[in-house]
């Protein structure tokens, strides 16, 4: 399981006073042992500009990888070291297809990594801890804690070749292709 993430969410009470709505470990956690990735959903918006959510938990619902049309998603993904992933290339590729993620272009049927995919989003990624390689169509970039990536709807995959898990914060914003 991914390590717990404390989530503090503020809002306003009935009188308009700023208050803490949530201060606890985020509860919407999903683990896929076959891919070595565990995700913690922190917040979701349904539009831009976003509306404020003063009641309920916007992260308690089930969502896919991309945000709702016109919306955004904030999540943290913890990537296990690739050496710890027991499933085959074919199994991981099938899982990506089941969650409707695939690369575009000529590598669609035979991507260089089973995690290769593209979303119609602008993604802000912050490497929180550990290290990871971002694979692109014909290149890769090694990233370490503190590095930031702005990804604009490109084919990519994340591969942790290190010995420790890598935690990455992602904010995905729906975009026009």
The order of strands across the largest sheet is 3-4-5-11-6-9
* CATH homology superfamily name: Jelly Rolls
> Based on CA inertia axes, which overall geometry fits?
globular
Low-confidence runs (pLDDT<50, min 5 residues)?
A: none
**CATH domain topology:** Jelly Rolls
Named CATH architecture = Sandwich
Quickly count the helices: 1
| Rg of Cα set | 17 Å
Distance between the termini: 34 Å
- Written as H for each helix and E for each strand, in order along the chain, the element string is EEEEEHEEEEEE
> What is the makeup of the main sheet?
6 strands, antiparallel
Helix content: under 10%
CATH class identity: Mainly Beta
Report what the structure shows.
The chain has a single domain (27-174), classed as Jelly Rolls, CATH 2.60.120.10. The protein has one helix at 89-98, and strands at residues 6-12, 18-25, 29-32, 37-45, 72-79, 121-129, 131-135, 140-144, 148-152, 157-159, 166-174. The protein is mostly beta strands and 177 residues long. It has one helix and eleven strands, in the order E-E-E-E-E-H-E-E-E-E-E-E. The longest helix is centred in the middle third of the chain and has 10 residues, at 89-98. The termini are far apart. The mean pLDDT is 90. The strands form three sheets. Strands 3-4-5-11-6-9 form a six-stranded antiparallel beta sheet, with no helix packed on it.
Features:
single chain; about 180 residues; mainly beta; Jelly Rolls; 6-stranded antiparallel β-sheet; 3-stranded antiparallel β-sheet; about 40% strand
């Amino acid at each position: 399981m991914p390590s717990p993430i404390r989530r503090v969410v503020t809002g306003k009470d009935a009188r308009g006073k700023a208050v803490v709505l949530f201060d606890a470990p985020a509860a919407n956690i999903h683990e896929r042992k076959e891919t070595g990735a565990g995700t913690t959903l922190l917040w979701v918006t349904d539009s831009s500009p976003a509306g404020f959510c003063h009641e309920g938990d916007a992260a308690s619902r089930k969502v896919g990888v991309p945000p709702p049309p016109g919306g955004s998603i904030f999540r943290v993904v913890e990537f296990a070291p690739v050496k710890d992933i027991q499933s085959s290339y074919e199994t991981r590729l099938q899982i990506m297809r089941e969650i409707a993620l695939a690369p575009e272009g000529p590598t669609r049927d035979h991507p260089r990594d089973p995690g290769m995919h593209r979303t119609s989003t602008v993604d802000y990624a912050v490497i929180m801890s550990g290290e990871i390689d971002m694979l692109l169509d014909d290149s890769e970039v090694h990233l370490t804690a503190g590095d930031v990536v702005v990804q604009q709807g490109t084919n990519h995959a994340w591969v942790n070749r290190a010995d420790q898990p890598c935690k990455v914060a992602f904010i995905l914003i729906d975009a026009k292709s």
